[in-house]
């Protein structure tokens, strides 16, 4: 079979939407500190969603070597910078 039936395609689409919503909500709650009320929480979720859309539009096919090159360049540098700042504040 090449195509999904109507009911199965609807269930797969709904499941994908729920998974996206839940993963963004977990990201906002764990890494962005959640929110004091529901409106701020949804605003943070919207910002994360739009940022992910822009990244996906710029890099539609992010290959493994591109990901490794990017991850060794910027996030590692920011992690070392954060470590240095933390050590400087702690001392």
Task: Walk me through what this model shows.
This protein has about 90 residues and is mainly α. The chain is built from three helices and no strands. It has helices at about 5-30, 40-60, 65-90. Helix 1 (about 5-30) crosses helix 2. The longest helix is centred in the C-terminal third of the chain and has 27 residues, at about 65-90. The chain is flat and about 60 Å long.
Report the average pLDDT across residues: 89
Which structural class do the helices and strands define? mainly alpha
Characterize the biggest β-sheet.
none
What is the strand tally? 0
As a percent range, the share of strand residues is under 5%
Supply Rg: 19 Å
What's the N-to-C terminus distance? 64 Å
How many domains? The number is 2
N-to-C order of helices and strands:
HHH
Gross morphology is flat
Work out the oligomeric state of the chains in this entry: single chain
As a percent range, the share of helical residues equals over 70%
Number of helices: 3
Flag low-confidence runs. Answer: none
Topology:
Elements: H1 6-31, H2 38-58, H3 64-90
Helix pairs in contact: 1-2
Compose a concise summary of this entry.
The protein has helices spanning about 5-30, 40-60, 65-90. Helices cover about 80% and strands about 0% of the residues.
Features:
91 residues; mainly alpha; 2 domains; 81% helix; 0% strand; flat
